[in-house]
């Protein structure tokens, strides 16, 4: 589809996000998302601290803007057994290092939409995830009314596996989210009843071990790891300050 707002054919180029992108990255996040992100999140993105990212730039842009972001995706690796989708993965107790790639944020500035930029950025993430032997899937959350994004994920063969009620809390209002997954490296949800039971038992056992270890180490920080509401949710660090004014330390797609 051609976007009439792009005056000419863009010369799109993809590269990692770098420190010089800090200002524009913050600005675009502010423009596109209903949630304010902590500056720590942006620092981690531009410095590649536990976050991988890709930027889209238009090399044919005049006025010194040929390297300015027109789109971006940020993601991080999480341990499968500690993720909220551990129950829908094939559990292999001999592989405790199984991982997932979680998409934190994805956005394209309005004038560059429908040029295939988001699709290309997602393909970069999928390719990256596929290159990690332990990685089983790419997953993300999307707010339930974000039809363009939902359409995009469906078009890219992501599977919607869950609707999470009241997952987001934005300006005091609760919104549901959909959880989308794209399996890589042969990772897939358990399908036979036996696989399903084995997966659940393995998941519960690993969960029990984690809880027991935490109790033993007295590491309970009173902050739930996967809180229900986005405003209190941080994927970068569970030590991040909680902020009830719709700020987010490293959050997922909305
Ligand atoms: C969602 C978003 C990232 C898509 O970016 P994009 O670069 O325009 O996406 P692409 O060009 O790769 O593909 C867009 C697809 O979605 C479709 N689409 C775009 N706008 C749409 C709309 N309003 N309703 C339905 N579908 C829409 C396009 O038609 C295209 O599908 P097609 O190839 O079948 O026509 C972009 O709209 C955006 O940044 N939105 C604001 C931030 C956001 O919502 N991020 C995602 C959070 S999970």
From TrEMBL:
UniProt enzyme class: transferase
Cellular component annotations (GO), alphabetically ordered: Golgi membrane
Reaction(s) the record says it catalyses: N-terminal L-methionyl-[transmembrane protein] + acetyl-CoA = N-terminal N(alpha)-acetyl-L-methionyl-[transmembrane protein] + CoA + H(+); L-lysyl-[protein] + acetyl-CoA = N(6)-acetyl-L-lysyl-[protein] + CoA + H(+)
EC number: 2.3.1.259, 2.3.1.48
Signal peptide: none
Gene Ontology BP, a term: chromosome segregation
A GO molecular-function annotation: protein N-terminal-methionine acetyltransferase activity
Domain N-acetyltransferase: 12-185
InterPro entries: Acyl_CoA_acyltransferase, GNAT_dom, NAA60-like
Keywords for this protein: Acyltransferase, Chromatin regulator, Chromosome partition, Transferase
Domain of life: Eukaryota
Segments passing through the bilayer: none
Similarity section: Belongs to the acetyltransferase family. NAA60 subfamily.
Protein name listed in UniProt: N-alpha-acetyltransferase 60
